[in-house]
Design goal:
This protein has 72 residues and is mostly helical. It has 3 helices and no strands. It has one domain. Helix content is 43%, strand content 0%.
Length: 72
């Protein structure tokens, strides 16, 4: 996780290569994790590029909720 938001496809690809072909990035929980121990469960809703839209947010939310329920 990191304190940044990826909006540039080239930068995303460069970071992915640097971290051994990472498939996804968590970009918002780093601040919480500095002060607390927690498990972050996220749904993936976009490709971190300029074509980002809210279309897939409901699907990503549902996937994260389903996983959390199974985990518990």
């Amino acid at each position: 996780s990191g304190n940044f938001v990826i909006k540039n496809a080239q930068w995303r690809d460069d970071v992915s290569k640097r971290f051994h072909d990472a498939l996804c990035f968590e970009m918002e929980a780093a601040g919480i994790m500095q002060d607390t121990q927690a498990l972050v469960i996220r749904g993936i809703s976009d490709y971190a590029d300029p074509h980002k839209s809210s279309h897939w947010q409901d699907c990503a939310t549902g996937a994260a909720v389903a996983f959390a329920r199974e985990l518990l």
